[in-house]
Amino acid sequence: MLGIALLFIGAVLVVNGVGLTGRIEARENAVFNFLIGMLALFISLLGIIRSVDNAGYLSVAAGLLFAFTYLYLAVVQWKGMSGKGLGWYCLFVAINTLPMAWMAMAQDMRSTVMWLAWGLLWFLFFLALALQKNIRSLGIITVIIGVASCWIPGFLMLADRW
Fold first, then answer.
1. Domains plus CATH for the chain?
2. Which residues form the signal peptide (predicted)?
3. How far apart (Å, rounded) are the C-alpha atoms in residues 123 and 133?
4. Do 47 and 56 contact (CB within 8 A), yes or no?
């Protein structure tokens, strides 16, 4: 299921990155963010049903960090809100990526790098949304992280090449 989630999260990061360059209207992006947020929520809920220990629940919690990011972003975009609250949520998520990266280090360095890349992106969104910092390259960074840390790994997982 992780491959499916990553493939579509990669897609939404690419679309959001393009949106940050002004090529896609925010309300149009809101629809895709809602769909991906619901997909991540559904996958996480399946994980809750299948989990039997704390490691499983931690994986579910990680998935919910993504799900709520995209659902929250969908509402912000649809309603034309400032996103300051979403920015502070992004800081919370960015902080959580640090222990996730540290724990992944013992198993798979690729996962560690992915968690650090996601943490960087969430931190940049904290700066952009909560603190209203102008990060000119945020759209390009979002696309690069989406492709490198989600789309390609997700596709490789699904193709059994990871």
1. 2-158 (1.25.40.600)
2. none
3. 11
4. yes
